[in-house]
Give the backbone structure.
Amino acid sequence: MSNYEAVIGLEAHVQLKTKSKLFCGCSTEFGQEPNSQVCPVCLGFPGSLPVLNKVALDYSIKVGIALNCRVQEFTKFDRKHYYYPDLPKNFQISQYDLPISKNGFLDIEMGKRIERISIRRAHLEEDAGKLIHKDGLSLVDYNRTGQPLLEIVTEPDINSPEEAYEYLTTLKSIIQYLGVSDCDMEKGSLRCDANISIRRKATKELGTKAELKNMNSFKAVRDALQFEIDRQMELLNNSEAVIQETRFWDEKSGKTFSMRSKEEAKDYRYFPEPDLPPFVITQDKIEEIRETIPELPKAKAKRFMQEYGLLEYDVKILVSSKDNADYAERCFKAWPDKNKKSVANWLIGPVAALANSRNKNIADLNIPVENLLELIDFVETQQISNLTAKSILEEIIDTGKSASQIIREKNLIQISDESSLGSDIEEVVKENPESVEAFKTGKEKAIMFLVGQVMKKTKGKANPKVVQEIIKRRLNNE
Ligand code: ADP
Ligand code: MG
Ligand code: ZN
């Protein structure tokens, strides 16, 4: 590989979260009965006429601005023709030479290095239907037909599967912040085709590319690209040619397979959509939409670091989702102490772990902010141990009870006062002469075993720090 480099360009299809489809009033709701959300327009009946969904246009402009694109003042739609059963009109309304946005970029962070990925264009188009192959039958569901997609195309600027992964992660997070799509690859609201070729380093000319399809997670995109790099490298090493084609990623075998030779633009017989006028996007309109763009993840991360004195690493995790960032900020604002580090630690530690194990976002755990802060305060003031706090946290989520209520009901307050711990410690010292001896002969670690025994006796309620202090003092004085 060393004399060669991978060249990758990504085409991401983002399903815009509008209530109705791109050119008709049909609902876009997910998971409804097949073919219940259709009408003459999206089914392409003769004589029906498309009307552009204004919200879809606004959302596309919003994404264009956020991706640093030049939003075009003059834009139009074109027909892209192909025949397939999921496309009842036999053409797709898309945009050919005048997309809504052009020439943008997205900066991604590869460790300490910032890579700028150029965005070639972002254009609006309608989705096709869904084919379902089942019990020897092929069925089609046209509910998805005509739903708005924004296709975001990069320049061949990406040089590794890891960069592709980071680009997609960053893109998804920005689009979610904008609130224009769920970007859920599992539900198909984000789909990605990856184009890849290999070339000699320091050359300008592009190699022959393969286009990869059917990856349904970012990890799959990364794996498919890595497989494809290896495959193409081997061809080149054997002096064989890479064929320009579309390849299909098979998750099970972890391989790509040839699907069909790649069609070219001329195969699609593009021509301007005669039923829709060209659209003029005024500067005022662009400015108006710019105003609605919220603080984006990078800016938010910077502000969190400055305002709340947090570290870059912690902040990055918190701002990866807008909901999580908003939740975290509500916690920070309600935490009286100037130092928000302990709250951040809780969020990215135990709370995130719990959210993960339940396949949820931190924010979706719906822990009332005051409950969480109360719990953290109990730990900070050493009234309960970290371990106890974690189990209380689960109970808060499951029962909705407050931390203090659970602590009261279960009598969980940590025992820190010496007089109540004295007899348990005395017993443990008597029962474990070897560990006591080991400690006295300089084995510092032996004390941890003794502390553990006291914790056991008190059913985890003793304050381990205090116990350790008392044992040390007791043994050193002996
Ligand atoms: P096509 O007409 O085959 O769809 P495009 O020129 O529209 O190709 O490009 C589609 C995507 O493929 C873009 O993201 C682009 O950056 C990328 N791309 C184009 N040529 C190459 C290449 N030789 N190697 C890798 N990626 C490429
Ligand atoms: Mg293309
Ligand atoms: Zn319709």
